[in-house]
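Standup notes
- HV: blocked on the assembly model, inputs below
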Amino acid sequence: MKVLVVEDNQRVSQFVCKGLREGGHTVDHADNGRDGLFLASSETYDVIVLDRMLPGGIDGLAIIEALRRTKNRTPILILSALGEVDERIKGLRAGGDDYLTKPFAFGELLARLEVLVRRAQGGGAETVLTVDDLRIDLLAHKVARAGREIALQPREYKLLEFLMRHAGQVVTRTMLLENLWDYHFDPQTNVIDVHISKLRQKIDAGSERPLLRTVRGVGYRLGGGD
Amino acid sequence: MAWVTDWAAVIRLLRSTSLRLALTYGAIFVVFSGLLVSFLWWRTAAVLDREINAVIVADTRAIGDRLRDFGLSGALQTIEQRVRQTADERAIYLLADPRYAPVGGNLSSWPAEVGEKPGWYDVDLIREGKRHATRALHVVLPANFHLLVARDVQDRLVIRGEIVAGLIWGGVAAIVLAIAGGLLVRRTVLRRVEMINRTTAAIVHGDLSRRLPSRETSDEFDRLAQTINAMLHQIQVLVDGVRNSSNAVAHDLRTPLAEVRTRLEDVLRNKPTTDEALGEIQAAVAEIDHVIAVFGALLRLAEIDSGARLSGFRAVVLAQVVAEVAELYGPVAEEKAISLTVDAASEHTVQGDPHLLAQALGNLVDNAVKFAPTQSTVSVKVERRNDGKVAIVVADRGPGVPDAEKARVSERFYRGRSVGETSGVGLGLSLVTAVARLHGGTLELRDHAPGLIAELVLPESGGTKA
């Protein structure tokens, strides 16, 4: 994917740009608001990583508002040291698509970017999702592995649906908490791990090819190679 | 130079609120005294004046009537009568012809002071060698006769003088008393204000334990002192809280930072293989993540304490929050073979932030599940209490919290002695307490014998159910 990183902190931007390039992505970088807005409005990107506070007279929110006014719908992930709920809401209201508080793990950032890009590319109209021999029928609310039906609790079903919609992508614990429970806090114990392991027992039990994998230190991935 | 200082002192004195108050009261007092004096004057001395005038006018009318009806002899007869009647010689009559030559009465000649112009005069008249201070009326009768009727007003003048003197002295005394009273009030007020001043100054200099003295009279100053003392108490609690929590923060972050540091320095010094080094760095990152989590929890606490979240308040159905949290923690409990029971059938509603309530309840359930032994029950209930509030009650069969520690477990970074080394940042119950406080509620801990009952008590909103 083609990513624009607008971030004035050199270490953070180097860290992000390097990580993305190593993952095979194309990255442009701007270290101030004016250049960032110029690049964002003149080039086409799959996703923009935008620092909330920037030098150069134009801050992150102003860039988002300017882009959205010109009907530029490029997904934007806001990076910010301001973690308060108010700030998050402000960022999302201005037109941001996701919000990540500094400090962050690179895996978390990458996972969120991939989800944003996938979401922007559309889809979602399918009524049946499949990963390998795992199949979920969104209309009938039925799940089957290799033709054998699996009974899931409502929350397990939602968890699986989310994972299948992002098949092959890494999904982090916080992403699951935010998307499935709408909780924006750390629930202390790794409750998500337990939910995942319950789901794993049901869909991977007795299978030669486990589909739901743990990506160490980052999150989980359903299907999609090793 | 000396007078300059004096003026400065005077100006300072004039700026004093209490003196201004005293002076204002003095001025109001003087004005009202003046009104009272005028009224008294009107009712006493002026009445005398009016009475005498009336008598004189009546006399002139009577004599004039006699002159018209009975001629000169009739008028003279009346005058004669009147003179005889007023044996005390207070009354003076003089009837004169058109050329001011006396015709009758008890005055030997037309007085020069009165002259030819009719009207009222205040003159000294000499009758039979005696000087009389008089009030006199000169009227012109038919046939151009002149009549002068006068009354000796010596007594009246004396009385009037007495009254005026009395009023003046009374007024002066009143003003003096007003000023003296004002100064007295000023001194009393000033003393109490000065007392408040001294105490607050001591507090400004760092002695937060000082309190304003109270006289137990429950007057305005006492009430002020009590309010200020209550405020000081609250400030002291907050300051102590901040002091304790910053000590705790420093202490709690020092340990993991020291570990990270040791780990990294170890890598630097021993130059291990790349794999080993990477392992160490990964461990260091995990430790730093823990530090970040602590900071995150602290910032969240600060955010809650600041009241910024109040804007997100809306009607929250507690049963819904309980169901969601129980659903989130269900698998964790299941894994420990703990049965997590929920009893939240009734639709209690509170005004609040659903996310914060969920997080607070999450912390309580997390603790309960963490400390409960396997095969036991953790129950979550929503119930109305006798005091009309609603409570989310989380009960477990874990080790409980000793009474001595109950008050302290909500303190930031406090970990119970009996807890030992468990995961968590030691801010869980602080957050619950902060959330409860933000919602106008409390966190109450009780014994479950064995175990702990944690009650998140919230005021129920009578509003519509969302």
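- HV (later): unblocked. Chain B touches chain A at residues 282, 285-286, 289, 292-293, 296-297, 299-300, 303, 308-309, 311-312, 324, 327-329, 331-332, 334-335, 355, 358-359, 362-363, 366, 369-370, 423-424, 428 (CB under 8 Å). The longest strand of chain B covers residues 130-140.
- Next: hand off to the docking folks.
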